Amino acid sequence: MISRLQQIQVTVQQIAEAISSVLMMDVTIFDQHMVRIAGTGYHRDTVGQRIIGYSVGHQVIEKREEYIIADIKSNDACLVCEKQSTCMELAQLCCPILLGSEVIGVISLIAFSREQQMEIIHKGTQLLDFIRKMAELIAAKTVEKSTVNRLLFLKNQLETVLNFVAEGVIAIDNAARVINMNFAAERMLRTKFNDVLDFHINEVFPGTPIPEILRNGKEFLDREVKMWRNGRQHHYLINAKPMLVDGVIQGAVASFRLVNEGYQSGYSKEAPVAFEDIVGNSKNLAAVKEEAKKAAFGLSTVLITGESGTGKEIFARAIHFASDRSTGPLVALNCAAIPEALLESELFGYEEGSFTGAKKGGKPGKFELANGGTLFLDEIGDMPLALQAKMLRVLQERVVERIGSVKVIPINVRMIAATNRNLEEMILEGRFREDLYYRLNVFPILLPALRERKSDIMELAGYFMQKHARAYGKDIQSISAEAEEVLLQYNWPGNIRELENAMECAVIKTLGSTVEVRDLPPKIAVTSQSGESLLQHSAEKEEILKALKKYGGSVEGKAQAAASLGISIATLYRKIRKYGLS
Fold first, then answer.
1. Buried b (16+ CB within 10 A) or exposed e, 492-514
2. pLDDT digits (tens, 9 = 90+) for 236-255
3. Predicted TM-score of the model (pTM)
4. Residue among 450, 449, 475, 452 nearest 461 (CA)
5. Sign of the C-alpha dihedral, residues 288, 294, 295, 296?
6. DSSP string of 473-523, one letter each residue
7. Backbone angles phi, psi at 83, to 5 degrees
8. Using H for helix, E for strand and C for coil, what is the string for 180-236?
9. pLDDT per residue over 91-103, tens digit each?
């Protein structure tokens, strides 16, 4: 567990240096676990290390007492120290850092010269009074840090709760300017909070009655609002109430939902997703987005293929919510996650008494639940052959039969299927029906692997870093240049899913405000350093020169060169300096 002093290590080091510069003596500060948190002079290089063996520091912690040791060689308190015979220190002044009755660390003032020793001998009481005040300052800083951490945790806890809510939530100040917005609101309004912060609510949510509360102070429930967006009219139900401080209206907070939206009806727990929500601006991803937008405005079956972790589900959701069926249900089923014996009943439903354990009254299948909307079947390549024949009939005849029933149920469902398998190879092996494949593959979309869109890696990494920092209540602001280089060099066989897992791991491990290489999963750092990337082997300098010659040495040319090499512009500048290139 991280000690209180470790949490404010930078501040403690600054205080140690300030004490040293004022008193002209070396200073070391360690926590209750004997880990050196700060140090000057001789002890600067051992910061972060644990002090081995029994010493005066242990006695200060155990007895909660102050020590003035005029002569290390003869003082009784130093006789127990294992390093007394080799110790270079001449005198020492030690003061516990107290938080209530708990010792959370020790400040030690050290004399290495005869002059410094005389200072401690003749001015020990005054020096101890000064060091005691510094200990109180450090203790106060730990309390301050704990308070800030607690407030940050509560803030992020609240944001996490809001972002799990399916309804959109938006808050305005007393001038009707947007001051907060959750993920669901971003998706429903097709905007990003940072892009509309401080905008008037009517610019973000035209036609909303929320500003009325600022004038009359009256909350309202389920107020219906209609607005046009992308050529279609959308209906919202809005709840809103004023925010009062000492009886004065300081703003308003509102929740809203789309009427008849799929997630409202209990079919999909996810809020709407727009193509703009899919992170990344690389050329090949942009091309895929354009193809997917075309697919959205048709009724044809879509087959999304790509490696595991490339984002097939989010593309399926974006296609649904951009289509004319966006107000209908979106029903998803992972064919690989359902046992073969249950998959048929999940898809087609069953009648009461059709098998042991069947629910009273029967149960509708996913096709029925998706009627009027979209059915997304993930991992379609894992569907058993026997079930593939029934799937083909549904696609051809647009009807389903529940298990145990002879009744035919007409359906109006748009289907999106996805797989990371090579279905054409499976057809040759007799594991997938050719006729079903051609029924599914009406509008094919192939998602690029992350290694094929390297310019998106850092944008995705930053997005995931912020997402998990909020979830874990941490204030992490950036990724170091070295960690960025490692992320860009790694091959990402697990694609976006692997990148998100890596950034969640990094967020958990990061102690400061910046993600460092040491915070990344060891596999990624080691693999990247082993030479997989172009810029890690002997041709590095030549490749950079070639790119600079091709695109030129202007700022724009260097940006293009960096993009062609799959690295950031900051990394390119470091490489240019490293090799002395002009």
1. bebbbebbbbbbbbbbeebebee
2. 889 999 998 888 999 999 99
3. 0.50
4. 450
5. positive
6. T----EE-HHHHHHHHHS--TTHHHHHHHHHHHHHHH--SSEE-GGGS-HH
7. -105, 15
8. EECHHHHHHHCCCHHHHCCCEHHHHCCCCCCCHHHHHCCCEEEEEEEEEECCEEEEE
9. 889 999 999 889 9
